[in-house]
Amino acid sequence: MPAKLIQGYEVVIGFETHAQLSTQSKIFSRSPTAFGAEPNTQASPVDLALPGTLPVMNKGAVERAIRFGLAIGAHVAPRSVFARKNYFYPDLPKGYQISQFEIPVVQGGGVEFYVGDEKKTVRLVRAHLEEDAGKSLHEDFVGQSGIDLNRAGTPLLEIVTEPDMRSSDEAVAYAKELHKIVTWIGICDGNMQEGSFRCDANVSVRKPGEKLGTRREIKNLNSFRFMQQAIDYEARWQIGEIEDGRAIQQATVLFDPDTGETRAMRTKEDAADYRYFPDPDLPPLVIAAEWIERVKAGMPELPRAMAARFVQVHGLPEYDAATLTQSKAMAAYFEAAAQACGQPKLASNWIMGEVSRRLNAQDIGIDAAPVDALTLARLIGRIADGTVSNNAARQVFDALWSGEGSDVDAVIEAKGLKQMNDSGALEKILDDIIAANPDNVAQIRAGKDKAFNALVGQAMKASKGKANPQQVNELLKKKLGV
User: What is the pTM of this model?
Assistant: First the structure.
């Protein structure tokens, strides 16, 4: 399906994402990386490059980069080089950032995802290791700013895409998939509010078939909702500027969620402006093939492989499988429930329906669900064996979720929700209904389905909803000879 045009223009989007790696210490020092510490209590002389200090590579950061490369089908470079990226800003007191430029550790690869039913692939240019800078604080200071250097030296993996996306929907779907990958393989906690997963969107517009337009980079998008709003606004703004005869200037911009607008922060630098050169204090990073093999052996089953297994082993539709593998916790919940009840499709339906609806309403993850997988499996088992109807099961689930009980059978008994499976009692109800409704019976025998459904409804009402609907249908058809 071709990309949707805005006023005859095509939107072109590329991403740079900074994933904070889940190491206990910084990339070149032993300083801790814990979030929320008092300002400037986690910055060592090494992080600030004070005279006489030397950086030492964090092996755990390298291993996480290898893991990411394997997850996206990239080339993990056997030899990569660190460089100094030179720029001057108050939160970078040493005047340069240690990064990778010409030879990054992860090269190529791609991320596959769905936008609706359409499968998309975004190609990655690279993923390179680098250190984070500090943070400028403006909120608590009147007429001045403060600098917190706790983040200085925190290990980052910067993930750079080709400009392959053509709408904000694609961009958000890509960002969600990338977020899923880095959290699934355990290299990043993905906390966007704390800055562990920060996305920069490079946005430009052009007429279809023309060369790429001038891009503007939207920095530090920390929610998927803001990401979509920012890209949509920026695209419309650029189109408006071009239509009014003004040229787009390359710039770094920020998104203001209060106004829903982007605003320029500074002109955008090119690579030459940073004066990259190899860091003289760090030797090349050499990764042996044996190390890559060891990391590969310890990799978890990846989401795409797990989704394929759910289709093959459990007989789930591809949509169900993709939804259930949105997080490792969701997948584990499904597998535990499906194995315990032996009804994988029913388990999928309940998890994607009733469970997800309540999780979304309360804005909690499945690992915080009040109903665990084994309890859900017991409830599904009671549906499968005819103990309760689907409607009654939802009442039981409501009670379990709200804490009215924890045992499925006890809640069923306490609420009197057990289905009537006594064929003798049900036959008596049906005989009375047939005798009282000769007109309906005649219509049924004449082939009128509506009349049949009316009698089924009467039977359900007479049993106070406790009759098994399937049993009612079968017995009624038998008695009427239809």
Answer: 0.82
